[in-house]
Write a structure and sequence with these properties.
Blueprint (H helix, E strand, L loop, with lengths): L3 H27 L9 E7 L6 E5 L5 E4 L2 H13 L4 E6 L5 E7 L9
Length: about 110
């Protein structure tokens, strides 16, 4: 039987993942993700039970589970370095953004 803490953590992680997905979808719909369209973006997030960490490619296509956050971050960075331009977005255990790392040159901006 799962402890109350585990159940609450799993619920918090699910809420955070829904927020992240909604935020990304909103950015794409509003055209705010313009510069990132040519960049591969990886997210490091806890799995739904909070017992392991996932590396997933934004927009699907890649998903890998790791036993620790450190392992997941290292795997995401290695993958991102091999696919420049790219970005790794690392989240906290509650789903909030902790930091991001960008690899390769940013696409040039055109004047608005």
């Amino acid at each position: 039987m799962r402890s109350l803490w585990t159940v609450r953590l799993a619920a918090a992680v699910q809420r955070a993942l829904r927020r992240i997905r909604g935020h990304v979808a909103g950015m794409v719909a509003a055209g705010e993700a313009g510069m990132a369209t040519n960049r591969t973006v990886y997210h490091v997030v806890p799995n739904s039970s909070g017992e392991s960490w996932l590396v997933s490619e934004e927009g699907g296509g890649f998903r890998q589970e790791h036993g620790t956050k450190h392992e997941a971050v290292e795997a995401a960075k290695e993958r991102a370095r091999a696919q420049e331009p790219s970005q790794v977005k690392v989240h906290t255990s509650d789903g909030n953004m902790e930091y991001e790392s960008t690899y390769g040159e940013d696409p040039s901006r055109s004047p608005s």
